[in-house]
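INFO  loader      accepted 1 record
INFO  loader      residues=217
INFO  predictor   begin
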Amino acid sequence: MRISELSAESGVAIPTIKYYLREGLLHQGEQVAATRAEYGDSHLRRLRLIRALLEVGRLPVASIKKIINAVEDESMPVHYMLGTAHYALAPAVQPEPGPEWDSARAQVDDLLSGLGWSVEQQAPARDELAQTLVRMRQLGLSTDLSPYAEAAYRLVSEVDMHTVPYDGPRDTAVEALVLGTVLYGRAFDALRRLAQESESARILSPGSPRPQTGAEP
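INFO  predictor   done
INFO  writer      dumping tokens
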């Protein structure tokens, strides 16, 4: 297909496609004439991936380039390719040197070790969880995360990782991981809040009238 057809099929404007080509985010088409190139399904897949990373993952171009390089490096195992995308999605956390931080980070390491999870030491989520533990301790909240860890692992092992097409094109696998991580994560948070409201109603006010629209439960 021509670039105009690629634009129509993907929903990405032609100037944007040309920008992706210049930046190396999108591989070049097959040159069939001096001023004409042909594009195919692999370009559509790549554009879907770029849009997922930009619009859903909210990633900067520099991070997207790193992920694209991992996708194109056929020598990189799929696990590490997906990890490149996963790490890019993690929020930036600035470690807070001091006893509180060190203790929280040690708790995270001990928790993961006790669970037998295979997680790299540099995984951004380790610091993210440690930062959360610091805040929880400061607020006097329980920091026993075992029930949450069990629920998270059950969800991931039974649902999350089965949505990733490991044996298909590498672009598609990363796209599925990004969409699943971000969107299903949001859906899970919303469902948790809805479940809390339902359980609160069951425990605290089983016979009370429903609140007015817009009112707090």
